[in-house]
Amino acid sequence: MNTETLRGLAHLARLEFDPAREEQMLTDLNKILDWVDQLSKVDTDGVEPLVHLSQEINVLRDDKAHNTISHQDGLRNAPRKDSDYFRVPKVLD
Description:
By secondary structure, the chain is mostly helical. The protein has a domain of 38 residues: Histone, subunit A (Orthogonal Bundle), CATH 1.10.20. It is built from three helices and two strands. It has a two-stranded antiparallel ribbon. The longest helix has 19 residues. The protein is flat. The mean pLDDT is 86.
């Protein structure tokens, strides 16, 4: 990895950084690439792909809809409301 490649990657990724930090970025990127290269040398023959991080099975509760507060209580602390609805700033023309 050289400075030109780093600048090209930064341009493609729409990243901007201080030119004074360019050398540090280049060093860090080379360390990352060296680490990935070390990973590619690990013998993974006979190792099953990891699908889940643990053998635990998710225990999920039943999803039942119920009202926890009334409609009026929900609107009580609204900064702006219009009868039965929250008023929000317009986002589309």
